[in-house]
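ARCHIVE CARD
SHELF: 3
SLOT: left
DATA:
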Amino acid sequence: MPEGPQRPRRGASTIEEVARAAGVSRQTVSNALNAPHRVRPETLERVTAAIRELGYQPDQSARSLRSGARRTLGYLAPVDDPLDPNPLMAGFLEALVDAAGAEGRRVLLFRPAPPAADPTAAIDELVAARQVDGLVLADVLAEDARIAHVTRLGVPYVSFGRTGPGEPQHWVDIANDAAMAEVVRHLAGLGHRRIGYLGAAEELPWMAARRAGFLAEAHRLGLAAVALPGAEALPGTGVAAGTGVTGPSAVSAVRALLRGPDRPTAVAAGSDLLALDVYEAVRAEGLAVGPGGVAVTGFHDTPLCRHLHPALTSVRLPLRAIAAALVDRLLGRLRGDAAPASGLELPTELVVRGSSG
């Protein structure tokens, strides 16, 4: 008995079949795939439904050959220790891959080769090989050589971290100072009047901003002075914060502070890893972490926060929103959209757990 008409095998249909099913031209289907902003919403919806029904999958390699686009974004990965990876940036990479994939793009991870480890050389090599359409940079420093280099090359890029005045503002970031100010308000709202701060080296702009946010809000609320050894107070604030100490030196500094006559009842740390040092120092002095002892907060809301005892209050970064915004801005640059007048600042969330009550 003869068989009836066969539906196209999923994944084997052609662009012409999609056009016929949607009642549009082949060019309209192409526009729907490559420049959906040019297609009327009702037409785009009809084409999308036909693509989904027929299981049509564009030939990415052919499209790349015609357009010169690689549909690949390069991510210059920060240097890290594979035996002790940075959990925040690992989470960001996962979010970036997802955001790029949602737009039909891949992410190519690259890093400067030792021993020179020159990031500009790694960028030159990647650009010369025509392997990527644009770059994503992270951990942006003041007067960052990578930003100046890609700007000179004319390579489309975006950065997780703000660029300086006079540089292109193709960045997405959080307001580190405002996030730390929220931490201070949280602790002050619980009745803490003596709050210490433990931060990292201030050549890292985000750490400098967190310390500044802590000091400004503590001064505004009239909190008592609590300083780690060797720290300097900003003029007129009455509050100081320790910086540039990690590991054993951080633990020793916090322990010395807790032995003083005006020991803090709370300590805000500039990262979750620094908060671990505070936990160790508090317990080494025979005190408890949390209500009734010393309240502790962190920053980044990495997975370890949930596994500490008590669980650590921390500032959560919107990593998926950051990654999606970076991909969106980079694709806008590749399309030739008008450059944004400023970077994009996204809000954080303070996740309150047992370490601060």
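SLOT: right
DATA:
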Amino acid sequence: MTTLVPSPVRIIGTGLIGGSLGMALSSSGAAVQVEDISPGTRSLAVELGVGSLPSPEDPDPQLVLVAAPPDVAAQVIGRALRAWPQAVVADVASVKTTVLEGVRALARGEDLPRYIGAHPMAGREVSGVIAARGDLFQGRPFVIVPHQGSRAEAVTALKAVATEIGSVPVTMDAAAHDTAVAQVSHVPQVMSSLLASTLLAPTETALGLSGQGLRDTTRIADSDPRLWVEILGANAASVAGVLGEVRDRLDGVIGALESLRGSPDPSIGSRRALASLVADGNRGVRRIPGKHGGRTDAFATLTVLVPDRPGELARLLTEIGQIGVNLEDLRLEHELGRAVGLAHVAVDATREELLTRSLGERGWTVAEA
């Protein structure tokens, strides 16, 4: 099997991202060498198929991918640049400006052009190499972050990595990247954690009333605190800026609610403020790209009742395929004690009528919106 990626590839740090990169690149035909500060993690990575342990007889790596937290990435990059003077060295940390500044301070001038930043935009709410998956990056953006002195072959090497792991390469500078990830990743993590932290107060009876909406909005709150302290600290300025805008909006919502509380003549302006919040949220969520990079308003979501019996979900998916409709997204909802589950099926909006009619003819119940 041939690969476009410079090989061998040395991956330093075999957690979720490093491990998943190793699995994906190994599957593409690249020779992957693994390195980790923890001997146990290193051995587990090899056993899981991330790569092999380097030996003195192995050729030097042509590409080094540093999968270390932002606070130590620059030091690891500096050591890699010195150890392998012919290799392109990239990091995949989730923050780029602080890492680039650290590399500039540590690296020799002649080494700096071989460094380039990257950030595969994928992850899970679980961490560690045991959670690594070779398909983690498929269809996801792979941000390439060159600096002014980066060599052209460094950019080419990372575009090859993106292609081989099934990602979509996107090129940005470090500052633009950090602002973007604050908006679409780091602040959502903070907001989810803030919401989940309010659940420490309710009684067990109150929590028993919770439904899918609460699960959806708090899913990513179950993340590694140590990792997120490093990420948020490294991107503090961008995250604080976005949260400042959230705070201003929240102050307006609180003010509107207080004016409505117990008022015999509710303010029209206060009601308008609340409606504006929800309407702006509608517009915002529709801007999130769908599976193929399209806008979500190009899709329609059908809710299909699925009997709580073995094989019923598989039958639904099979029959959707038989009808000739491509499934864009699927979300399942099932509450304890409910006789049916709810399959929220997203499809091309132009196929909604066909799928609704055809599923009804096959005996499925499609809930009205």
